[in-house]
């Protein structure tokens, strides 16, 4: 039995509104990844993203955009697709996506060498919110993020010197947790640079998210760490655990930062 032929290349027109924007109209990279992936999945018979990798070529602006989806191969267990978010004919985000079927929620893994982060209860963690007088932040309007105080010294005006941030995340609107939502969550914590005393924008250059299991609904435990912060570039590794204690997503990204002045 041969695998079905991939669908033809298609283009979807859409509008990027400011619901997930922050600062001077900067659009959240995780939400952009979810938006592009949701369009790409319409071109395959497989229901879930398995691995999604994005290169952020240029910062998209608010307004009209298009997503072009090119199915590369439609296999029996994996569909491979390329997607491009463009504005005015210029590429903004390039995505490669592998689609398939994730294990059912609550399925026990055959092997796992990891454990969920140990966090205080959400009620004992710090609600991440914008200080008064600063521009709005669409991420914090759409997500309830409660930070582990041990990794958020910067919120109290000091710096712990740890390249790690952890906390609880859930939708502010009550959205049920699904695999696509995990693409947004995998890029939702504040940058690890904050507790190192490095402020400012940390733009993502490349982001890869691996989906491991369909999530159980509820609070998500998320931890993000950097192994190297060097010369204006840093890596961030992220783990997302569902309310049943199952590892449901892993992410790794390369991002830029501005070196603090001496």
Q: What is the highest CATH level, the class of the largest domain?
A: Mainly Beta
Instruction: Specify the helix fraction band.
Output: under 10%
Mean model confidence by pLDDT: 94
Radius of gyration, Cα only, in angstroms? 18 Å
Structural class: mainly beta
Written overview of the protein:
Residues 17-97 form the Acyl-CoA thioesterase-like N-terminal HotDog domain. With 262 residues, the protein is mostly beta strands. The protein folds into 2 domains: 1-101, Hotdog Thioesterase (Thiol Ester Dehydrase, Chain A), CATH 3.10.129; 117-262, Porin (Beta Barrel). Helices cover 10% and strands 39% of the residues. The chain has helices at 29-41, 138-142, 179-185, and strands at 10-16, 21-22, 26-27, 48-56, 63-74, 79-87, 90-100, 126-127, 143-147, 164-171, 204-211, 220-225, 229-230, 233-241, 247-256. The strands form 2 sheets. Strands 1, 4, 5, 6, 7, 8, 9, 10, 11, 12, 13, 14 and 15 form a 13-stranded antiparallel sheet that branches. Strands 2-3 form a two-stranded antiparallel ribbon. It is globular. The chain starts with 9 loop residues before the first strand and ends in a 6-residue tail after the last strand.
């Amino acid at each position: 039995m041969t695998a079905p032929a991939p669908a033809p290349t298609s283009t979807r027109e859409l509008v990027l509104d400011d619901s997930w924007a922050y600062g001077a109209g900067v659009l959240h990279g995780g939400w952009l990844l979810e938006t592009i992936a949701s369009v790409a999945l319409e071109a395959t018979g497989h229901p879930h993203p398995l691995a999604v990798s994005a290169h952020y070529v240029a910062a998209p602006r608010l307004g009209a955009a298009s997503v072009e989806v090119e199915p590369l191969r439609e296999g029996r267990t994996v569909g491979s697709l390329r997607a491009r978010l463009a504005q005015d004919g210029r590429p903004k985000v390039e995505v490669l996506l592998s689609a398939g079927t994730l294990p059912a929620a609550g399925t026990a893994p055959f092997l796992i060498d990891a454990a969920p982060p140990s966090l205080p209860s959400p009620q004992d963690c710090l609600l991440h919110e914008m200080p008064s007088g600063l521009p709005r932040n669409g991420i914090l309007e759409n997500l309830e993020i409660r930070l582990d105080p041990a990794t958020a010294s910067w919120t109290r005006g000091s710096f712990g010197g740890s390249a790690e941030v952890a906390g609880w995340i859930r939708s502010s609107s009550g959205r049920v947790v699904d695999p696509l939502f995990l693409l947004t969550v995998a890029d939702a914590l504040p940058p690890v640079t904050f507790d190192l005393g490095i402020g400012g924008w940390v733009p993502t250059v490349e982001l890869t998210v691996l989906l491991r299991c369909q999530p159980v609904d509820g609070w998500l435990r998320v931890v993000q760490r950097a192994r190297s912060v060097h010369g204006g570039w840093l890596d961030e590794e992220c783990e997302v655990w569902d309310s049943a204690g199952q590892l449901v997503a892993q992410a790794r990204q390369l991002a830029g930062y501005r070196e603090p002045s001496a």
